[in-house]
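Quick start: what a row looks like.
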Amino acid sequence: MTFAARFKRSLTIWIGFGCAGLYWVAAPFLPTNVQTEWLRVFMIVLGFAIVASCTKAIRSLTLADQPVSAQQYILGTFFRELGLLGSAMWLLVWRGAGFPPWMVVSNINAFCLWLVVLGQAFVLMAPRDQERSPPAVRWPQLAALFGISVTLGYLLLVLRPDFRLVASWLQTCLPVN
């Protein structure tokens, strides 16, 4: 079977690209600022889930021999998600402290966030193809993570806690360039 034939028959690929395209269906009806903030909340919750699922696998890297590909996948996933998680939390704290939103508010940025959220969801749903890959999360777990995301989003984005004290403290802790 040719690549094109396999591509056309892959339900996963069509669902993935369809979900990515849904962003552009919703974008005209939602303020970009709202999109960006909610997508960051989903990044935080899904990122925590992926980092937590990788922790056991990372521990096993030091305890037993594993194929290089498994080590790269586990460490790459862990570091990528940890970086995304830190970035999302950092930006929400700065936004809550009154940081100028022009740096993060654009449809292109929000689209990238949407792709990251989709990527996280697909990583969590992927079946385990190696014994030492992070455990897969299925639909019930994904639904629970969605509920946590909505709750956290409500707490951070609707109630809008004031992060100015946190931002001031962070600013005093960071070296000045």
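That is the whole record. The longest helix spans residues 32-63. The CA atoms of residues 45 and 149 lie 6 Å apart.
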